[in-house]
Design brief:
Order of helices and strands: EHEHEEHHEHEHEHEHHH
Number of domains: 1
CATH architecture: 3-Layer(aba) Sandwich
Structural class: alpha/beta
Largest sheet: 8 strands, mixed
CATH class: Alpha Beta
GO molecular function: hydrolase activity
Protein name: Soj-like protein
Enzyme class: hydrolase
Pfam families: AAA_31
Helix content: 25-40%
Organism: Bremerella volcania
Length: 248
């Protein structure tokens, strides 16, 4: 059975999509059949692996989900592309009755062919994120190693706990990863200490550093692991990948 990881945080700009792309790439390169699902209307996960957004989102179309899965340039990495259609964004957000149940069914069906499914969510705690959480087995939360890291987390954690309590109760807290880490700043170490003291063992040992290669890679439609494999950012994401595999 696939491990379904929801990559979520209500704050934008924390490295959520970057984490989803690079973790998916790392898992695929570790010979795990991996599916990246783009639920963010910005479609950055789609363009970040060199694909184009679709006119209609596969999760609200009438076609079987398997018909919309695309191959990427990385062996073992597949993509359910996102859509910028306002109509589809509204439907994904629960604009129609029973949309959540339909999306959950789509997300859960046909996943047996994959070892890992990573869902990139929009930066919110809205209906799209809650639907993704309900369909997932784990939630992974990137937190920026800066001043506002803890801001708004109370609401995000409340939503996660609410989903955990719902039948069948399969969602678990997969972990927290510190991103945009600058070891030369005292503030970074203060934030890390606060996060680790508050969350304990669920925080990954790996931290993802600030690295211009990480920022540059999406403009080439690549993960940093394939774009700049010797960079600090690539090494960090591979180490994160190994930690995720170890937590299986």
């Amino acid at each position: 059975m696939a491990r379904i990881l929801c990559i979520a945080n209500q704050k934008g700009g924390v490295g959520k999509t970057t984490t989803a792309i690079n973790l998916a790439a790392g898992l695929a390169m570790a010979e795990m059949r991996t599916l990246l699902v783009d639920l963010d209307p910005q479609c950055n996960a789609t363009t970040g692996v060199g694909q184009k957004p679709t006119e209609r989102h596969p999760l609200v179309s009438q076609q079987p989900l398997g018909d919309s899965i695309l191959e990427t340039s990385i062996e073992n990495l597949f993509l359910v592309p996102g859509s910028r259609s306002f109509e589809d964004v509204e439907r994904l957000a629960g604009g129609e009755k029973s949309t959540s149940a339909v999306l959950t069914h789509h997300l859960e069906s046909g996943m047996n062919q994959f070892d890992y499914v990573l869902i990139d969510c929009p930066p919110s705690v809205g209906a799209i994120t809650q639907t993704a959480l309900a369909a997932s087995t784990e939630v992974l939360m990137p937190i920026q190693a800066e001043y506002f890291a803890m801001e708004g987390l109370t609401q995000m954690i409340k939503v996660i706990r609410d989903v955990m309590r719902r039948p069948p109760g399969k969602l678990e807290f997969g972990g927290i990863v510190l991103t945009m880490y600058d070891p030369t700043l005292e503030l970074t170490h203060e934030v890390e200490q606060e996060v680790r003291e508050f969350f304990g063992d669920i925080v990954f040992d790996t931290v993802v550093p600030r690295d211009h290669w990480v920022s540059e890679a999406p403009s080439f439609g690549q993960s940093v692991i394939t774009h700049a494999p010797r960079s600090r950012g690539a090494r960090a994401h591979m180490e994160l990948c190994m930690e995720v595999l170890d937590r299986d």
